[in-house]
Amino acid sequence: MLRPSIFGENLFDDWFSFPELRTLDQAERKLYGQHASQIMKTDVHEQENQYDVDIDLPGFDKNDISLELDNGYLVVSASKNIDNSKDDKKGRLIMQERYSGSMQRSFFVGDTLTEEDIKASFKDGVLSLMIPKKTEKPIPEKKQIFIEG
Fold first, then answer.
1. Among candidates 134, 16, 149, 129, which has minimal Cα distance to 75?
2. Which CATH number among 3.65.10.10, 3.40.190.10, 3.40.1280.10, 2.60.40.790 corresponds to the domain 33-84+93-132?
3. pTM for this structure?
4. Per-residue pLDDT of the chain (149 residues; tens, 9 = 90+)
């Protein structure tokens, strides 16, 4: 017999989680609420000479996205500003589920890459990156130093 449950789907998680850790998940995230970490979905494909990275950024414009290389990490940032005025050209705002805010994700790509090595394109809400595989600098052979005297 099916009965309505008075407990949520995470009954045991709720009982056994530490209270101070649960509050971190409830922190306010302006852009996409508590699911902001799930928005920048990423696929990485390895090719012979490069990695192809596709990042879903629905609702963003090319100008909302920035890429930078920082100490071997490729940092992908996206920010969005939505007009929060209650009255505008479209009429009086009754309900708003979209927010202004920003999100960021970083990937370690190594110290040997430069900004010119990475190619990026943005089409239909998907940021596509081509990151070449660069071999590390070869370690020179150990040579013995002769001591005179």
1. 129
2. 2.60.40.790
3. 0.62
4. 455 555 555 555 555 555 554 444 444 445 555 555 557 889 999 999 999 999 998 888 899 999 999 888 999 999 887 665 555 667 777 777 776 778 889 999 988 888 989 999 999 999 999 999 876 666 667 777 677 76
Per-position DSSP letters for 8-62, written without gaps between them: -TTHHHHHHS-HHHHHHHTS--TTTGGGGGGTS-EEEEE-SSEEEEEEE-TT--G
CA 124 to chain centre: 17
- Tell me which H or E stretch contains 120: strand 119-123
Tell me how far apart the alpha carbons of residues 100 and 79 are, in angstroms, rounded to a whole number.
Answer: 8
Helix (H, G, I), strand (E, B) or coil at 64: helix
The residue type found at 125 is G
